[in-house]
Specification:
- This protein is an alpha+beta fold.
- It has two domains: 2-57 and 267-403, no CATH class; 64-259, no CATH class.
- The protein contains 15 helices and 14 strands.
- It has a six-stranded mixed β-barrel with strand order 3-4-11-7-9-8.
- It starts with a helix and ends in a 6-residue tail after the last helix.
Length: 409
C-alpha cells in the first residue's frame, strides 16, 4: 500500500497541467470541510439543548419513580419501604399523590393536576431551585401552602403577595355525582401560594404542588394511599443496577422507571430531531462529494500517460485502482479532518465565551446557544465522511483501465 499512497499523495499536492483540476480539488476539500463543520456544530448544539431540557425536567422528575403496574393508587402499608431504604445508593425517598382538579382565584379558574408531595420531594428533585417567586414552603405553623406553576399563576392572575384572597382548590368527591347542588360533588380547600415554580411550559401550565397531607384530605384517603414512590440516587452509583434492585424489591406488581423513561416521549422526540438533521446534512455532504467524482475523473484523463507507463512496468488493474481510490480518500479525509477540527474549535469557543447569542423574543433561561461536544459525534462525522468519500471515489475507477489505452511498446 506504500506505493499507491505515495503516488496518490504526489498527485494531490503536485501542480496539474490544467488549473481547473486544482480548483475542483480545492473546492472538493472545502465542500467536505464545510459539511463536516456543519455536522459537528449542529450536533453539538442539539446536544446542548438536549442537556438543557433534560436538566430542567430533572428538577421535576425524580431519579426513580415506582408506580403500580395496574391501577392508580396503592397503600404504603403494602409497599416494601424498608427494603427500598436499605438499597445502597438510595439516599432519599418520598411519597407522591396526584389527582386532577380545579383552581380558582377571584373570578378566574383553571383545570390543573395537583401533585401532593412530602418533605423529601425537594431533596429528591430539586424543585426548590426552579422557583421564580417566593419560597418552596408547603407547611408552616400548621398551615398548608401551595406552589403553582408559572403558567397556572399567569392564567388565574394569582399573586403570592395577596393575603386577602386565597386560591381555592377543588377536587371531585369519590363516588359522588353533582345532583341538585354541583358544589356537593367537590371537596375544596383555600390556601395561599408560598412560591411559583417554572420548569417548562407544559408543566408550568398543568401542575400545582401541594402538601401530601392536604391532598389526602381532599381525596378523603385515610390509608396512606399514594400514586407513586420516588427516590433519589447518590452520585457515582449505577442507576441501571439500582433500578434492577428496586424492581426485585418491589415485585411484579410495580413498575420502576428512571428519569429518561419518565420523559420517554420528549427524549425520543429530541433524538429523532437530531437524527433528522444529521441525515439532511449528510445529504448535503453527498452533494459535495460530486466534486470528488469530477476531480478524480479529470485527474484520470490527465494522467492517462502515467497509467500507461505503470501498466508497461507491470502494474496491475488493482494497483492503479488503489492509487486513484487513495487519492479520493485523501481528498475526503483532508476535508474531514480540517472540518472536524474547525467545528470542534467553534463549539469550544461557543461553550467558553458564548459568541452566538439566542435571538429569542422575551426572557429565556439562557442568553447564548448551549453546546456540548461529544466524542461519539466527532467519530460519527469522520466515519460518515469517509464512507461518502469512499463511495464517491469508486465511481471514476470503472474507467481508469480503459482511459489509459494500450501500454506503450
Amino acid at each position: 500500500m506504500r506505493l499507491p499512497l505515495f503516488i496518490a499523495w504526489r498527485y494531490l499536492l503536485a501542480k496539474k497541467t490544467h488549473n481547473a483540476i486544482n480548483i475542483i480539488t480545492l473546492v472538493s476539500v472545502i465542500g467536505v470541510a464545510v459539511g463536516s463543520i456543519a455536522l459537528v456544530v449542529v450536533l453539538s448544539v442539539f446536544n446542548g439543548f438536549e442537556k438543557l431540557i433534560l436538566s430542567l425536567f430533572n428538577a421535576f422528575h425524580p431519579d426513580m419513580e415506582i408506580t403500580l403496574a395496574e391501577g392508580k393508587t396503592f397503600s404504603m402499608d403494602d409497599f416494601p419501604l424498608e427494603e427500598l431504604a436499605e438499597i445502597p445508593g438510595v439516599i432519599h425517598y418520598g411519597e407522591v399523590l396526584e389527582e386532577s382538579g380545579l383552581v380558582m382565584y377571584r373570578e378566574r379558574q383553571h383545570l390543573v393536576r395537583f401533585r401532593g408531595v412530602d418533605d423529601a420531594y425537594s431533596k429528591i428533585t430539586g424543585i426548590d431551585t426552579m422557583l421564580v417567586q417566593g419560597d418552596f414552603v408547603l407547611e408552616q405553623d400548621g398551615r398548608n401552602f401551595i406552589v403553582p406553576g408559572q403558567g397556572v399563576s399567569y392564567v388565574i392572575n394569582a399573586s403570592i403577595h395577596d393575603l386577602l384572597h386565597p386560591i381555592h382548590l377543588y377536587v371531585p368527591r369519590r363516588g359522588r355525582t353533582a345532583g341538585l347542588h354541583p358544589a356537593q360533588a367537590f371537596r375544596s380547600s383555600s390556601n395561599y401560594a408560598s412560591g411559583i415554580f417554572s420548569v417548562q411550559s407544559e408543566y408550568d401550565m398543568e401542575y400545582v404542588i401541594v402538601p401530601l397531607r392536604l391532598m389526602r384530605s381532599l381525596l378523603d384517603y385515610r390509608n396512606e394511599e399514594v400514586t407513586s414512590v420516588v427516590a433519589a440516587i447518590a452520585p457515582g452509583y449505577n442507576h441501571q443496577r439500582i433500578q434492577r434492585q428496586i424492581e426485585e424489591v418491589a415485585g411484579a406488581d410495580y413498575v420502576v422507571r428512571n428519569r429518561l423513561q419518565q420523559q420517554d416521549f420528549i427524549y425520543r422526540l429530541m433524538r429523532s430531531e437530531k437524527w433528522a438533521i444529521f441525515f439532511i446534512l449528510t445529504f448535503i455532504l453527498i452533494i459535495a462529494a460530486f466534486n470528488i467524482i469530477g476531480s478524480l475523473t479529470m485527474l484520470v484523463i490527465e494522467k492517462r500517460r502515467d497509467i500507461a507507463v505503470l501498466r508497461s512496468m507491470g502494474a496491475g488493474r488493482e494497483m492503479i485502482r488503489r492509487i486513484f481510490l487513495t487519492e479520493g480518500l485523501l481528498i475526503s479525509l483532508t476535508g474531514a479532518i480540517t472540518g472536524i477540527a474547525a467545528g470542534a474549535l467553534i463549539a469550544w469557543l461557543q461553550m467558553q465565551y458564548g459568541l452566538v447569542p439566542l435571538q429569542a423574543e422575551g426572557v429565556f433561561i439562557i442568553d447564548t446557544y448551549p453546546v456540548k461536544l461529544k466524542g461519539s459525534d466527532l467519530l460519527l462525522t469522520g466515519f460518515t465522511v469517509f464512507c461518502i468519500g469512499f463511495l464517491a471515489s469508486l465511481i471514476p475507477l470503472r474507467f481508469i483501465w480503459e482511459a489509459s489505452g494500450k501500454p506503450p511498446a
